[in-house]
Amino acid sequence: EDIYLKEEASHLDPQNSVTTQIRVVEYLGAQKMVYFDIQGRICTAQAPTSLSTPEGASQTFIFDMSKAHLFDPETGKAIR
User: Fold this and answer.
1) Rounded mean pLDDT of 42-58?
2) Nearest to residue 24, comparing CAs of 14, 32, 15, 34?
3) Of 5, 9, 59, 62, which residue is most buried, by most CB within 10 angstroms?
4) Is the separation of the CB atoms in 6 and 66 below 8 Å?
């Protein structure tokens, strides 16, 4: 949640973005799940079916950092 395709995130800071290749698109009725990776880690974002997100395409994703939860990878404790 709170990961948006660039086309639907004009209200967010573009500095919190990453451009990567879409690996898989899974259609779930009124929305779809878009799978992509960042430095070898698989991420998932929800997207409206109205947006064009073909597999293999390059796409910019913007993160809403005001809703981010960060954890220490060694202890699992919340950082923020």
Assistant:
1) 89
2) 34
3) 62
4) no
d(CA 73, CA 9): 28
Give, for 7, the enclosing helix (H) or strand (E): none
User: Quick one: tokens of 26?
Assistant: 């899974």
- d(CA 37, CA 24) in angstroms, rounded, equals 10
Among residues 31, 34, 35, the alpha carbon closest in space to that of 50 is found at 31
Q: pLDDT value at position 55?
A: 95
pTM listed for this prediction = 0.78
